[in-house]
Amino acid sequence: MQAFFNCTYPHPSPLERGEAYAQTNLVPNPSFEVFTNCPMSNSQIYYSPPWYTPTWGSPDYFNACAPVYNFSVPMSFSGNQPARTGVAYAGLFLYNYSIGANYDFREYLQVQLTDSLIQDRKY
């Protein structure tokens, strides 16, 4: 005995109505694949322009081309982490409180978007 299940959508889909839009990525170098040098130590996010740190924090740049194990991909000083896409990524402490030193430590990354955001538009 055969059973058939027919699932129909009663209304045209957004694609059928011509309402599907391609998304533009406003973040330049989103996977850190564009780089000027291979990282050799910490705090070298500037090797992946146009990314930079706006504070005294020290975000790290990891790339498979790194000549030292500590900043390579997928194995680095922080463990085994393959890149989501390509062979590079950035790493940072979002928050680290040192009880002995009695201070808060945070790292930030920043990049200029390729275009302005538009109010009330969904991204």
Describe this structure in words.
Strands 1-4 form a two-stranded antiparallel ribbon. The protein has a two-stranded antiparallel sheet with strand order 2-3. A two-stranded antiparallel ribbon has the order 5-6. Mean pLDDT is 83; it is low at 1-9. With 123 residues, the chain is mainly beta. The chain has a domain at 45-105. The protein has no helices and 6 strands. The chain is globular, with a radius of gyration of 22 Å. The protein starts with 59 loop residues before the first strand and ends in an 18-residue tail after the last strand.
Q: Which whole number gives the mean pLDDT?
A: 83
Q: What general form does the structure show?
A: globular
Q: Whole-Å distance between the termini?
A: 48 Å
Oligomer: single chain
- Binned, the helix content reads under 10%
Strand content: 5-15%
How many DSSP H or I helices?
0
| Class inferred from helices and paired strands | mainly beta
* Strand segment count: 6
Query: What are the segments in which pLDDT stays under 50 over at least 5 consecutive residues?
Result: 1-9
Strand order, main sheet: write it out: 1-4
Rounded to the nearest angstrom, the radius of gyration is 22 Å
SSE pattern: EEEEEE
The biggest beta sheet is recorded as: 2 strands, antiparallel
Task: Summarize the model shown.
The protein is mainly β. It has strands at residues 60-63, 75-76, 79-80, 88-91, 96-98, 103-105.
